[in-house]
């Protein structure tokens, strides 16, 4: 059951018209939020990230079928992370720029100003905003659909797209192989002591067997794909069409309009 | 449909014609195969045999044009498919005429669901969607995976994934399928699944198969014709299966080619003076041979028969009993990510014994071995290896007590030369340089690696890597050696070479513990067996007794072919025979 839940290839499920994000083209879900993400990289105002966080959360709550895990991440882990980041960034803030604001904590010579927390909070919220905007596509799109969309709409050569998809299968295999190599090296007494230098040496030792195995595996997969006529013709049959429909255009335009409205609204305020 | 028309006109034209083919890999100095000619006719099952290094796999890659189109190698002579030389056409064109199934099921899967996987080939051929789906459904139904079409291929068993690979070949609708060691990575259940599917495929004669297979016991029943290459890659035989296997068995053995167990058994009987007119190829034929031996009905025609009251009385089944256990496991429970894999294992391994741990995939064999060898720390107090608890021991003491050999030798190489690799665990023990050099030299000699002292371990051949990994496990003086699936993915010759080496070590006093699913191979070497099923010990004891007891079947395994043939014999005297060398005793006494 848990395997199925984490299956990166599971068929994109349809969760009805209300959960509309699952029905949109993956490219639309990336193109829509993209300008907002760029704005967040450069904005210094607390209102801009807040506005985009509200928009992204609203989209996800209404339009996405959230698993218990994702919901936990969004509503518990993310706020906690924002709080921690706020304080950490606050501690890093140049005190001379915020010393006009009230002092919150004083330890010896060190003063933590309210303004410092404000700056930290803004930065944390900008990061959270970028993350949430990327999750609009991230939580509602499957890897294969994204590849299909890049091949069908962006005209990425299918040889590249589907090879990337095949390579994605290597990840769990390599993870397993790495675990075995680590075990093997540990029993052989390759622990080599503690500390960062020993740690780096240890990891370099994993690279050779991992690469040797990886290259061999990749060659075999390539032969298997060749023998099944992969790359034979300029086009290949696509059973799953991922169309770019009117509603995708509408989604992108509305998102862009909302982004512009937020930016103009904040500038005028 | 296509197969039908092809079949009608096929009596004249071969599906594949190989003429004087020489193939040289980019980095090689010799041609293997070297001047080979043969034909594959429509609907025929051709078995290609040859010792390691004779170029069987290279030949397989040449049959569908991957050599020379996709593999850097030069090809002399011609491989003609449907009359067209492979060099004059493309791999894509060939894929509709000759399709491939490779050894490693994992290395052939490129998509995320069973259905997508089977559709992959037809999609590449740009067929209309309806045709793609129709072909996929037919192929998946043929291998009995249609009901699992929506699943991720990772969730199938090894045998299931290999059946999927066969379905992918079927979906290309090619009249010839080439299978290169299709069962080398499978457990016995998976092997049976694959051969059940293949038997079904060839039953109507519409498809030709070219089989490269070391597991002859499973394959031989399907085969029409055998092509044998010798060690230099030259053609040794090309004839119907009966002629090659029955009339030239001794020559095949001389070439280093493995034979079916039934044939090997009959050869042993013949050498011992029993009249064997026609060599058997399958267990059923061996049983028939035994039952037809002259004087069978009249009573004990074989003088030895009365000497075999029951299995445990076999002298070979009783190694000198040693009161001191080398390994004692008590109530061992091991969990991984909240699932209990071993449910209270109790086990004793006598010092000096050769123990095989067998079980189906997922029975917990490797987990048990890793816990015993301290690769994954067991709970404290559950395992005792010669007085050492692997849960508390440091690497140095562990290496001096129990050596562990991983399934893939490359995983455990940590130094950049063979000599350093051997010296590593001695350096950890802070021995003298001169003592280290002495021991390394001795080990290099013992494992035939003297000429590779300064070679990088990764540049050794497969067999040399395996020998080095055993050498590194032994050099610190460990009296116990644990090996995880040491014969997995290897051909019979390499596997036998390794087991012979283990046998020598065992004779010299090393306690050997092997995890495997290759029951037949182990039956001839192990003194004791432990049968695991679902994380519990199903049976343990002397090999002959376990093989005769039916514990293997109870654990979802199959008895090896020899045991099956002997058990089916009419005279109960044969029932106790579990290994080839038992036959010598039967005939000699």
TrEMBL record, chain A:
<dbReference type="InterPro" id="IPR003339">
    <property type="entry name" value="ABC/ECF_trnsptr_transmembrane"/>
</dbReference>
<keyword id="KW-0812">Transmembrane</keyword>
<feature type="transmembrane region" description="Helical">
    <location>
        <begin position="72"/>
        <end position="92"/>
    </location>
</feature>
<keyword id="KW-0472">Membrane</keyword>
<feature type="transmembrane region" description="Helical">
    <location>
        <begin position="249"/>
        <end position="267"/>
    </location>
</feature>
<feature type="transmembrane region" description="Helical">
    <location>
        <begin position="34"/>
        <end position="60"/>
    </location>
</feature>
<keyword id="KW-1133">Transmembrane helix</keyword>
<feature type="transmembrane region" description="Helical">
    <location>
        <begin position="112"/>
        <end position="139"/>
    </location>
</feature>
<protein>
    <submittedName>
        <fullName>Energy-coupling factor transporter transmembrane protein EcfT</fullName>
    </submittedName>
</protein>
<dbReference type="Pfam" id="PF02361">
    <property type="entry name" value="CbiQ"/>
</dbReference>
